[in-house]
Amino acid sequence: MDGQGGLAIETIRFFRRSWLTSRLSRICLIAISLLFAGTLGASAEGDAAGRRAVLYVAKGTFGVQGVLYTLDPATGAVLTTVGLLNDVAGHNYGMGALKHHPTTGIFYGATAHNSPTNPDYLVTVNPVTALVTPIGPFGAVLTDIAIDPTTGIMYAVSGYNQKFYTINTATGLATQIGSTGLGYQNGGGLAADRTGVLFGIDNFSFYSYNKTTGNATLIGLTGLPDLVRAADFNPSNVLYGLEGGGGIDNLHLRLLVTFNLTTGLGTLVGVIPVYDLDAMAEIDATDRPLSSVGRTACRQGGSTG
Asked: I need a surface site. Which of 13, 26, 65, 296 has the fewest CB within 10 A?
C-alpha cells in the first residue's frame, strides 16, 4: 500500500479511537472515508483505476422513521448509521429511492408514498449528515429513480402503473414520456450503468429500458425468492440490489444482492441487519469525495445538523 493509503487508514483509525462516541465523530468519519476512499486501491467496490464508492441505503417502507446507513458491499453489514433523515426543522423523511448525480455531486432522494413528511417528493440528502432538503412534489407515485451519467437526465418508473417518467430536478415534477408495457410495477429497482443503459427489476424479472419510449425488454428471471426494492451500479459497473418483501421471507427483512446483466440472475451477498430499507445508492468517491458540509464540521469541531 502506498503512503497515501497508509495515511488514510491511520487517520480513520485515529478518529475511530478518539471520537467514536460523539455525533461529530460519525460526521467526520464518514467525510474522511469519502475523502480518502479513492486512495485505498481497487476492491469489490473499486475498479482497476482504484475508484471507490460508498454504498448507502435508507429506510422508507410502511411509514417508518427514515434513517440513512452505509453498508459493506462484500457482506451487507452496516458500516455506519449516518443519521435520521430530517430536515432543518426536524421533520423526518422516509426514502423510497436514492441516487447520486455523478456530474453535480448532488445526492437526490425520492420520498416514499407513506413518508412521515412530504410523501412523493424529490429531495436532496447530505451524505455526511443525512440532512434532507425538499425540492418539490413529483405529482406521481414512483418506485425508484435513475440518473443517466452521460446526460444527467433523471428517469423514474411508476409504483402503480406502466408509466415511465423523466424528473425535473429543479422542481421535482415527473413528466410521463412513455410506458414500460409491464402493467402494475411490483417491487421495482431502476439504475443506469456507466454508459447510460437503464436496467430494472419488476416482479421477479430483470429488464432493460428504452430511454425514449420507456419500453421494457425482458432479459431474464432474477431467481430470487423476494421482490427487489432498489438498485444501483458501483464504479466497476456491478449492479447491486435491495431485495425484500413480496416473497417467502419476512416482509420487513432486506438482503443485499448483485445481478448478472446478461442473464438477469440475482446472487445473494448477505443479509442486511436493518429492517424496512427501501432505497439504495452508490456514491463514487472520485466524483465528489467530500461535501463542503463535512469539511466545515470537521474543521470547526461542531455539528452541522
From this structure: 13
Sign of CA dihedral 40, 43, 46, 47: positive
Domain boundaries, the chain: 53-291
- This prediction has a pTM of 0.80
For 110-133, what is the mean pLDDT? 97
Distances from the Cα of 62 to the Cαs of 66, 94, 112, 123, 152, in angstroms? 11, 9, 9, 19, 31
Spatial distance between the Cα atoms of 287 and 145, rounded to a whole number of angstroms: 19
Residue 284's beta-bridge partner residues? Answer: 53
CB burial of 268-289 (b: ≥16 within 10 Å; e: otherwise) equals ebebbebebbbbbbbbbbbbbb
Report CA-CA distances (Å) from 80 to 5, 57, 138, 190: 21, 11, 30, 24
Condensed to tens digits (0 to 9), the pLDDT of residues 159-208 reads 888 999 999 999 999 999 999 999 777 877 999 999 999 999 999 999 99
Residue (of 277, 259, 272) closest to 205 by Cα position: 259
> What CATH number does the domain located at 53-291 have?
2.120.10.80
pLDDT in tens, 215-244: 999 999 999 999 999 999 999 999 999 999
